Description:
The protein is mainly α. The protein has helices spanning 3-23, 30-37, 41-45, 51-75, 80-96, 103-111, 122-142, 151-171, 177-190.
Amino acid sequence: MGIKGDQTKQLICMEAFKLFTEKGYKDVTMKDICENTGLSRGGLYRHYESTEQIFLEIVNFLMGNQQNEFSEKMQKGTPAAEILCDVLMRYEKEMLDQCSSLSIAIYEFFSNPNISKSDNSITQQYLDSKNMWVDFIQYGMKRKEFKTVNPEAIFDLIVFSYQGVRMYGVMMDIDTNIPKRIIEQIKLLLLPESEEIPYENSIL
């Protein structure tokens, strides 16, 4: 596929992302995506056969971006505490930004029994994310930047707190202090006292 084709696919995914965050997964149709992109049905179907295919590409892209971010920084020897603070700062913003949340769409997609999930299950997404975080936490422990912890337990705390706030945020107004308190506790669990950033002075 040429540059023009790649640009068209990027446009489709960008506009579909907006629709999925606004309407969830089940209420978005290929017609909606045609209207938002200005493409004809033939132009859209030339690239994607269904909203399922588009949604999975978006989810896999987002996961791949995060995995690349961790691995590239670790390969460069970036301090673990610096990586952690950057990621948690972004997580805090995302927990409060319901306009760009795919949480409801992800729930609708993976809970739909009619969706084929043989190769792209939410379980696999969870496992991929867990492996990424476990590797990162072990990286921090080896460098003596993190306390000795159970990496899997820390990951579960992070992922379920993050997704829980995003899910609740779609249904109710979230107190801005909730994400801040979550981030503070994660830092306290991982960073030695000498490395902890005083909460009132934190960049978060």
